[in-house]
Design goal:
Structural class of chain A: alpha/beta
Order of helices and strands of chain A: HHHHEEEEEHEEEHEHEEEHHHEHEH
Helix content of chain A: 25-40%
Shape of chain A: globular
Radius of gyration of chain A: 24 Å
Oligomer: homodimer
Amino acid sequence: MSELSLHGGDPSVLRRINAAATLRALRGGGEPTLSELAREVGLSRPTTEGVLSELADRGLVTEVAPRSGRGLGRPARRYRFRADAGYALGLDIDAHHVRLFLADLDGEVVAGHHAAVALNASATERLAAVRVAVSELLATVGVERGALWAVAAGTPGVVSPEGRIALCTVVPDWEGVALARELGRMFPCPVLVDNDANLAALAERWRGAARDSDDMVCVLAGPHTGMGAIIGGRLHRGRWGAAGEVGLLPELGLRDTAAVLAEAAPSGTLPAEDSDGTAGPVERAAERVLAAAQRGDSAAAELVDRLAARMARGIAAMALALDPEMIVVGGRLVRPGDRLVEALRRAVPPLCLTPVRIEASTLGEDAVALGALRLALDLVDEELFRIDRPA
Amino acid sequence: MSELSLHGGDPSVLRRINAAATLRALRGGGEPTLSELAREVGLSRPTTEGVLSELADRGLVTEVAPRSGRGLGRPARRYRFRADAGYALGLDIDAHHVRLFLADLDGEVVAGHHAAVALNASATERLAAVRVAVSELLATVGVERGALWAVAAGTPGVVSPEGRIALCTVVPDWEGVALARELGRMFPCPVLVDNDANLAALAERWRGAARDSDDMVCVLAGPHTGMGAIIGGRLHRGRWGAAGEVGLLPELGLRDTAAVLAEAAPSGTLPAEDSDGTAGPVERAAERVLAAAQRGDSAAAELVDRLAARMARGIAAMALALDPEMIVVGGRLVRPGDRLVEALRRAVPPLCLTPVRIEASTLGEDAVALGALRLALDLVDEELFRIDRPA
DNA sequence: TCTACTTATGGAACAAGGGTGCGTAATGCC
DNA sequence: GGCATTACGCACCCTTGTTCCATAAGTAGA
């Protein structure tokens, strides 16, 4: 709007506005009638007709067969948004995995993929694994690389505004990698990179536990606990991309989260890294403690409660700073109905000023990749609905 | 824009867009020529002419005398934004004062006012003092109450989204007051109420130390230390209006800020409240310690440093949570070149992950009232430039 | 099978807004 | 006093969108 109100406009901007409105209504799904569409958008039928033929020329809309037999009168022409006119791709690159989701322009996920990567892989090897995974995914569903409109990737650590890994303690050889540029070489479309907790927040708001919440915080409890925040409906990154890192204050207890649980097992007895490279020894140990707590092992349960009490201070600091509507707790250490989330639900509110809902993630390990997908889809939407330049 | 893209538009919305764009260009100040204006907005001269005559009908624009003698050719008609077509009012209501600023539609401050209120005044008395102060201010400059387009007020404590004082430890008898409704009775225009630190943040961004910074935090060091945050260029209030209250965590050391300094003087020797009711005994004592530190008193200086070290944790928590571009420190306890700000500048960065500028407020005691004014002016701007309804 | 009714279509006539171009008015300079 | 210069005011045309109406293409009932 600001762009719009700065420079005045020809009648053509009116057409662009109406095209965007029509596209938006059409993308809601279904195969509306011309008249239905006109009524919904608030335009006359002839105008809508003109807009639609223009959108058809751009390849974004097709006419579908009219449905006869339903109702009285002459069957109406029906139109459909061509969701397959383009695709968006979301990546999750972490210490042990590469995860991918591909969606069409409707945001419908059409394919997913997963590949294990060794913890101690070099940055080059990790990027090669990404390249292979992407190629496999695209080949499986038969989507051309040129059909991608936007790509986004999430990764642990602090990601600078230019998409460089400014800080990363979790993935070896990862710090300093200009990830956006490296990935940019693989795709003929814009590539965005962001912190994993930030993207998990986007995902939870999109199709997870925080649907339609405009002010929420997502806690990603993994080896290190990161947080992402949606503020006023928009992802907040901070000046240097480091927002949500309250864990740095030692007294707020968000560092080495998994290690607190793992300490139960004497370090000498920790198993070596799994052969599939899917999780490190600390994560494995932590997950065993969580499982034991779930089974009713009282020593393990106490350890979980202690972890929750430790984490509560950091989470409360974030809640006090932002006063969010809700906090979603996710990451490797969390499953729905978990003892950890229950413990946090007891430990955090007493430290807060306002009632804040605490929910477990419903997306599990897919959260980050889905969030990356959502970020890419946001870019797609911006492209679809932009009105400040000729199509 | 979203509003715009949802419902399609007549040619009339085009006119509204162009009117808004022209008004925006015109309000930049000066008395531009018709052609200059047309060039700047990107419209043709006849169109601009039509828009201007419409704006003149609405009383927002006047033609001024052409300036002959300057340059060749026929003198051009010149136009001016009628800043006096309306006014905005900002209030600061705190424990000891009522402060007011009145501005025209250009945001130019045309009058200010200040009145002392006794600390132990009842809510009713405090509101009466506000009413009197407003009447005096308006009478002084000869502005009708009906000429007010928007009013905003700042006050210590947590202000709920509906404008109720949900929590306030600083002003007696203030908690629970439905301030927005009470003030609403005094004015025939919208009235907004917000937390004082939030408004101070707005003010510092508008004409203080944080000009044009879209991500900043304002620390208001008074009896209790509050914080306000601008995120992505917009004020962040939180779901319940309680954002920025990290001070609640005891280990973050933002509670009873002034008292830390005042403790130097044994409580028995504290002077009684000043006859003018302008400051409480604790504030007075705190200010004496600050002044002593400024003069070089080493004991006082050490006390200030200790306070800074205490506050640093809370400020760092906020900085880590939000990763702002800069932090502005203001409030009663701060003057430019102060030892407190210097001490914070040393104490905070080591706790942070990213380089964050720390600056002293340049607005002094006016910050909150100016921020309230800015909030009211934002509402004025929204009204001036709205395009989603007929004028 | 034919007729009446219903609903959508397609195009013509009309209105609003914006751009272009040209004759004309008002000023400064020589 | 004439000329160059600059801006004005108006007429004309294009784009976009709306209203209105005759017509087409179905269904339901006789």
